[in-house]
Amino acid sequence: MPRCWTCSRGIVFANPVCEQKNMLRIRVLHGPNLNLLGTREQSIYGTLSLDALDSAIMELAEELDVTVDLRQSNSEGELVTWIQEARTGYDGIIINPAAYTHTSVAIRDAIAAVGLPTVEVHLSNIHQREEFRQRSYIAGVAIGQISGLGPTGYLLALRGLHDHLTASRHQKKTSAPATSRRAAKGTK
Ligand code: DQA
Hints:
single chain; binds 1,3,4-trihydroxy-5-OXO-cyclohexanecarboxylic acid
C-alpha cells in the first residue's frame, strides 16, 4: 500500500511522513447506495465497484502527493459527523452525497459550517435526469460540481481541488510577508 493513504472504512493508516511533508489532506465521502456500485443500475452508474473507484482515486492521490481519506456511509448523520471532523486535519472535501444531494439541508449546513473547499461529484448527469434530481442542496456551498462523467469525475475533482488548495497555499505564503511588513510599519 503506497504511503500516506488513509483508506479508512474503519481502518486508518497513519504515516508521519505526511505531517513532515505538509501534504494536502482531502477527505472523500461517498453517500448512500454507492457501496452497491458495480451491481446497482449499471446502465446509469456503470460496472466499476466502489473498491475499484477508490483504488483509482488513491492512485491519482499518490501521483499528486495528496493524502486521501475515503469513506462511504448510508447514513446522513454519519456523513455530517465526518464533514464536521474534517475541520481538523483536512484541507478539503470531495463528496458524492448521492440521494442526500436532493434532500439534505444538514449536509449542506455541515459543509458551510466547516468552510473547507468542497467539490460535489455525481457519476450520472443529474441535470438530465428526473426533475427531483436536478436540484442540489450542496451546489451552493461547493466550489464546483462535476456531474455525468462517471468515475472520471472523481479524478477531475481531485485534480481540481488539489490545484485550488495549492494555489490558496501559495497565495497565503506570498501575502504573509507583506502583511507582516505593514504590521511592522504600523500601517493598514
Ligand atoms: C448520484 C445521483 C443521485 O441522484 C443518486 O441518488 C445517487 C447517485 C450520482 O452519482 O450520479 O445515488 O449522486
